[in-house]
Design brief:
By secondary structure, the chain is an alpha/beta fold. The chain is built from eleven helices and 14 strands. The structure holds (5S)-5-amino-3-OXO-hexanoic acid and zinc ion.
């Protein structure tokens, strides 16, 4: 059986600083968290940036450069740059990481979706920064835009720079979008899909739904690589399910701030170590970054520009 790729999604653009004191904010914290995740066994770091002063998600290219250089200096990890960026960033700005760094891998969101975070406000009483409440509130009326025009532009740019798309799928229809892009020459097979489950606006994180996504993709696309990530309390259960189904897994504070019920994770590395413990109990070994490159057919660290 092939080894499994463990991705750590280090900080994301969803959670806000008031939700956990352990959420990495500055470029230094984000880079150090990636290195810790690597030491715990992660092969891939999925990275977003935040404003170092107040933790607001943003897409500062200098911050990306600082983080990428630090990770490359300390590890041979694969960096999966976000092109989802931060809520409200323009489609053009979100894509800039690809020409700027010519990475091996970057996220490529496979369709538009209501990306809702406003419901978590019910559980929040205090806010560390003024931007947090309006940021979460505005998602009641927010569509995360990834139209066909955008998908064509993104996949062509990825091709131009030799960057493999990690195709985020938030709901079943997006599998159809990917099939269209394959049959029209925008994507090369086998594609790499990240099933993102449990976002309000997307498909709920259930066992039945993961089987349904997988079987739908099998029927529509055929041969593909895949991984799963799931929001909040669904993170570890869905990753368990993926391990049993021969899939890869993504953990990290982007998706869940917890290590177990009611207990915050103090580091991305806690979640990486946990899923690797479970994998090993099942007789499954984590892939090294080099093994992950081979599995996904990546161009190699020597061909990036960071
Ligand atoms: N920024 C979020 C709306 C990605 O990294 O490409 C979606 C996201 C996906 O985080
Ligand atoms: Zn992301």
């Amino acid at each position: 059986m092939e080894k499994r790729i463990v991705t750590a999604a280090i900080t994301g653009a969803i959670h806000t600083p008031s939700m956990s004191p352990h959420l990495p904010i500055t470029p230094k914290e984000i880079a150090q968290e990636a290195v810790r995740a690597y030491e715990a066994g992660a092969a891939v770091a999925h990275i977003h940036m935040r404003n170092p002063e107040n933790g607001r998600p943003e897409g500062n290219i200098d911050s990306f450069a600082e983080v990428a250089a630090h990770i490359k200096e300390k590890t041979d990890m694969i960096i999966c740059f976000t092109t989802g960026g931060a809520l409200g960033m323009s489609v053009e700005d979100r894509l800039k990481v690809v020409p700027s760094f010519e990475p091996e891998l970057a996220s490529c969101n496979s369709g538009s979706v209501n990306f809702a975070l406003f419901h978590v406000l019910e559980r929040m009483k205090e806010f560390k920064y003024d931007w947090e409440k309006p940021f979460l509130e505005m998602t009641e009326d927010f569509i995360f835009p990834n139209t066909f025009k955008t998908l064509k532009q993104y996949t062509q740019t990825f091709k131009q720079y030799g960057t493999r798309p990690e195709l985020e799928v938030y709901d079943t229809g997006m599998i159809n979008n990917i099939a269209y892009l394959i049959s029209n020459g925008y994507l090369e097979e086998p594609v790499y899909i990240q099933f993102v489950m449990g976002i309000l606006g997307g498909i709920p994180a259930t066992v039945d739904n993961l089987l349904f996504l997988y079987n739908s993709a099998k029927k529509t696309i055929g041969n593909f690589h895949w991984s799963v990530c799931a929001a909040g309390k669904h993170q570890i259960p869905m990753c368990n399910m993926a391990l049993l189904m021969d899939g890869h897994v993504r953990v990290g504070l982007e998706d869940s701030l917890y290590i177990t019920k009611g207990e915050l994770a103090t580091s991305n590395a806690d979640q990486v170590a946990k899923i690797i413990r479970i994998a090993r109990e099942l007789g499954i070994d984590p892939a090294t970054p080099q093994e992950a490159r081979r599995i996904l057919g990546l161009k190699g660290l020597e061909k990036v520009t960071y």
